[in-house]
Amino acid sequence: MKCESEVREINFKYMLLYVLRRWRKIISAGLVLAVLLGAFSCATALINIDAKKDEYNTANKLYMDELAYYEAQKKQYESQINSYEQFANEQNTYLNESILMNLDYKNVAQANVNVFFKTDDISGKTVIANSSEPIIYDPTDSYQNLFFNNVYYNTDWETIAKKYNVNAQYIEELVNFKNQKDVNILKVTVNHHKPEVAEEILDELVEAITEQKKIFNAENPNVTITVVKNTTKLVVDHDLLVKQNTAKENLIKTFEKVTTIKALNEGLVMPTLSANDVSYASLVKDFIIFAVIGMLLGIIVVAGGYFLIYFLSDTVHSEEEFNDTVKAQVLGFITAKSKHRFGKKIDSFIESFSNINSDITESQKEKILIYNIKNTVKTAKTILIIGNAPQETLDSVKSLISNALDNVNITVARCIVKNADAYDEIKKNDVIIAVERIGCSKYTEISNTENLVKPKEIAGYILA
């Protein structure tokens, strides 16, 4: 060999071709790793799916309970808000429209009438004894209560209210009935800011009292009822002031309650489901993701391995390296037939980037090879074809030479056996032609082949 140095240059183009020629193994490794990782993801998911289902069911139950509480609480708050707002609106309307609530407590006109009760039957009184002092029960009290009920419930409040174009409720609250049982007097008082109006309303009540008096006396002749109308006067009514202030304070408190409940309602946080439901449909997605990762990882790892092998191997990777290695001339090139049943077009595409398969056609390469062989063999009668190329490549070279040369005995011996028979085989042949394959034949193999044929020399090389 020309060059015995262990230092050699690395050609990126041939390094890439070296890796690309092994695309089947790279793709196969990627597919295998894709299937393994995809299967691993599915197996892992299936193991954990039951646990995730239990976790989801627990979380979902808690979520439904919290959601039910949230909806019930929100419904309760909204109901309270509506109720208090309705009450506040009604109370506000009442304070604005009520005659009593708008009276000036310092200047209230009061018209009143006293109704006196007397029972002729004194023996009707009953003494109820107990452990302390005796209690005297006067039947006049019962007559007084009965008369009060008859007057109040039989007064036509609606008719009176229509005269003043107000609500009957606002007329009723102007009238104060006070039953003084200790002196047997029913005191009826009408409050108003106008004395004449107070007297008019009182007159309406006196008519009702007089009417009920006739009916009552007819049923209870032993009861004497005396009606005494008093003079109307202006008074300062502190009780009215307290009542007005209380109504206003209640309205303010109601608005405060509405504000508080609204804040609580707005502060409610709708619960969220803390776990996601698990379905077998996710297995497909996981399988695809892990399969793609596995595919890429397999391609990268195996391709990287081949790049490393290229750096570490002593294989001849280019025609230039081969010419620098051997002494004999290169007779020509022959296309190595692919032994694979599929991917031949891909192989052809990859080889199109190699200098070996340049723009020269197959027929032209064959003619150049035959021409060089004829010039090398000349009158030789026996030819030995050796080398480290595949057996089918050696057979192709033998067939090519047999068709080109007549009366020549050709022997093929791939990877010559290192024994005495090998030397005898070499001595019998006139010319030795070696067939090597770029990217497969190693420097050590080429050197061993040259040493085996000594003292003869290899006449030429055919590269595949």
Can you walk me through this structure?
This protein has 464 residues and is an alpha/beta fold. It has 14 helices and twelve strands. It starts with 11 loop residues before the first helix and ends with a strand. The model has no long low-confidence stretch (mean pLDDT 81).
Short synopsis of the structure:
This protein has 464 residues and is of the alpha/beta class.
Distance between the termini: 19 Å
Unreliable stretches = none
Which structural category do the helix and sheet elements fall into?
A: alpha/beta
DSSP strand tally = 12
Return the string of H and E elements. HHEEEHHHEEHEEHHHEHHEHEHEHE
Shape category: rod-shaped
- Spatial extent as radius of gyration: 62 Å
Count of alpha and pi helical runs = 14
Overall average residue pLDDT: 81
Strand content: 5-15%
Helix percent reads 55-70%
Q: Biggest β-sheet: count, sense, barrel? A: 5 strands, antiparallel
